[in-house]
């Protein structure tokens, strides 16, 4: 009979040493092609308890570690619309105003606002307001004036210094009675030059409309389609963006225009020159109107960037925020 690889261990105090040697020898022998079976030594009860406790502690430790890691992963950054003063690195007096304004907005508008740094948001906001102030004139409405089904202008409002929009080398027109506010006209020139550089000549189909003109248009649609349907695609007099002199309807004014070369170009590049799509698809409950791929309003380049970055590129959400911001007056 072959001699054992290890001497027979004694009981008691030599248990740990023999166990260590058995483990080590088993490992070494496995590499040498031996099959070694440790001696069946039963450890003392107190050592078994210690081993059990160690195993239990290890399980608890790794379980807690995993839960902590999961909690850290799932913890989302604070939504900008729920921001508090404590989130700012430096106290900012405008944060209270920001919170008041966000509280006034609809839940859908709040959901559209991404997580972000409130100081960065405020910095971008002031770029928008600064750009608007450069074009501001005391005798006319603000460029970002909110007009919709709930906010209107008077029947006698006419934008100052309207410029006629006629056929020229930059664009074509569908009629001869078109006009725009000066800043909108200048931006339309810039937009049209860029389109021409890409081989596209824009068609301008509708611009400023007077209160009286819109009244006749709306009444005609009501006779043709009924009030309920007419209100989904036509504005009541005094509530149309066209009366501001800053809106343009391009092309054929039909849904398929959005699929044309001109329509796709305008959709992809208009914001680079300060033009924003007013009535996007699937937002009738927000804007009050059906999708209009042809209707763009001039709001300025900074406002377009602000809208895209912070308001999911929805003009109505951004204009509502600006309106709330301007109207907010802190209480004493």
In terms of DSSP E residues, the strand content is 5-15%
Main sheet makeup: 5 strands, mixed
- From N to C, what is the helix and strand string? HHHHHEEEHEHHEHEHEHH
> Alpha-carbon distance between the termini?
102 Å
Compact summary:
This protein is α+β, with helices and mostly antiparallel strands. The protein is 47% helix and 9% strand.
Keywords:
disordered N terminus, single chain, 9% strand, 332 residues, 12 helices, five-stranded mixed β-sheet, alpha+beta
Descriptive overview:
The protein is built from twelve helices and seven strands. With 332 residues, the chain is an alpha+beta fold. A five-stranded mixed beta sheet has the order 2-4-5-7-6. Strands 1-3 form a two-stranded antiparallel ribbon. Helix 7 packs across helix 8. The protein is elongated. The termini are far apart.
Could you outline the blueprint of secondary structure elements for this entry?
Elements: H1 15-32, H2 45-74, H3 94-104, H4 107-112, H5 118-134, E1 163-165, E2 171-173, E3 178-180, H6 182-197, E4 202-206, H7 211-225, H8 227-233, E5 247-250, H9 261-269, E6 275-279, H10 284-287, E7 292-298, H11 301-310, H12 315-327
Parallel strand pairs: 2-4
Antiparallel strand pairs: 1-3, 4-5, 5-7, 6-7
Helix pairs in contact: 5-11, 7-8
């Amino acid at each position: 009979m072959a001699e054992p690889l290890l001497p027979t261990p004694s009981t008691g105090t030599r248990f740990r040493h023999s166990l260590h040697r058995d483990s080590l020898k088993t490992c070494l022998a496995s590499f040498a092609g031996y099959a070694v079976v440790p001696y069946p030594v039963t450890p003392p009860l107190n050592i078994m308890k210690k081993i059990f406790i160690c195993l239990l502690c290890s399980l608890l430790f790794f379980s807690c570690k995993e839960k902590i890691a999961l909690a850290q992963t799932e913890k989302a950054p604070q939504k900008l619309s729920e921001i508090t003063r404590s989130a700012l690195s430096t106290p900012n007096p405008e944060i209270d105003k920001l919170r008041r304004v966000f509280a006034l907005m609809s839940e859908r508008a709040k959901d559209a606002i991404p997580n972000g740094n409130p100081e960065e948001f405020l910095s971008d906001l002031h770029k928008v307001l600064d750009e608007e102030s450069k074009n501001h004139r005391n005798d006319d409405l603000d460029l970002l004036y909110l007009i919709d089904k709930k906010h209107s202008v008077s029947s006698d409002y006419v934008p100052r210094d309207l410029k006629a929009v006629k056929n020229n080398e930059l664009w074509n027109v569908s009629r001869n009675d078109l006009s725009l506010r000066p800043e909108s006209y200048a931006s339309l020139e810039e937009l049209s030059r860029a389109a021409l550089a890409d081989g596209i000549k824009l068609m301008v189909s509708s611009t400023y409309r007077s209160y009286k003109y819109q009244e006749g248009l709306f009444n005609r649609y009501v006779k043709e389609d009924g009030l309920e349907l007419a209100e989904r695609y036509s504005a009541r007099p005094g509530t149309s963006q066209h009366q501001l002199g800053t809106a343009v309807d391009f092309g054929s004014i039909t849904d398929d225009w959005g699929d044309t070369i001109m329509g796709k170009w305008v959709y992809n590049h208009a914001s680079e020159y300060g033009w924003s799509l007013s009535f996007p698809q699937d937002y009738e409950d927000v804007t009050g109107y059906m999708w209009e791929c042809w209707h763009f309003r001039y709001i300025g380049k900074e406002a377009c960037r602000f809208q895209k970055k912070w308001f999911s590129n929805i003009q109505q959400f951004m204009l509502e925020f600006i309106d709330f911001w301007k109207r907010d007056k802190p209480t004493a």
